[in-house]
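User: I'll paste a sequence; please echo it back and then give the predicted structure.

Assistant: Echoing your sequence first, then the prediction.
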Amino acid sequence: MSAYAWIQTPLLDIAYLEWNPSGSRTAVLMHGWPDSPESWNTVAGRLAADGYRVLCPALRGFGPTRFRDAATPRSGELAALGRDLLDFIDALGLRQPLLAGHDWGARAAANACGLRRGVAAQLVLLSVGYGTNDPNQTLSLAQARNYWYHWFMATPRGAKAVRDNRREFTRMMWDTWSPGAWYSPEDFDEAVQAFDNPDWADVVLHSYRHRWGYAEGDPTYLADTALLTPAPELTVPTLVLHGGADACNQPASSEGKEAFFQGGYARRVLDGVGHFPQREAPQAVADAILAFCAKTGT
């Protein structure tokens, strides 16, 4: 693995990690919240060993990624994440990469495919059910309980926790979203460095508030939001991997989504795995991705 590199897009200087730059195929792996590009280290190494050039960008507000203009709204809306990914693909001149994402990264990857048909060869979504970006969606009471942190961040008390106690706040998610003592202190310390970005708190608070209609979006993304509302059907072959013990997004939240996918669809539940499959079960995740890609043509 190399150190971070940067690529300039219209709005961002995006930092990314890269493996096997001369690989014959390309995979872009998108991290989630609260996490960092390093969450993919083991999976990325496996894909690189199989011949992929692997790129793991830091999302807006995370790690070394920076906004180019101080006047740009620090939006965390999901359409913006999808557009950022398309800008990253264009800046590097990538042609139909494999797109894989976890949590926020899954939403970014799916939205990129919704905004531009044919942008990816395959799509892999971890821990997120497609079509769950709608603020008017029906939620079970159990899932609403899991989303306590969403509602908390809509309050002044929650905003203060995000701004002033981000380490303690995010550790709560790591400690409760997956079973057992699944991570080392070093893993968390590495990830939390990505939250020291000066825009992290603004992007995070806006993302969750906008998701439920508590904040206005950036007008820049009105057209993209319209294309993504309601969630469009996708033509890219798609694999969903969901931890069976995910205590953030219940596994049921990714069930019954087949009608959204016209290019082939598979879903696999990983028994005993929580919300961070690429960290908790990286070999199983890598095996599933490689088998899916072999089956669907690359």
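The CA atoms of residues 123 and 238 lie 5 Å apart. DSSP finds twelve helices and nine strands in the chain.
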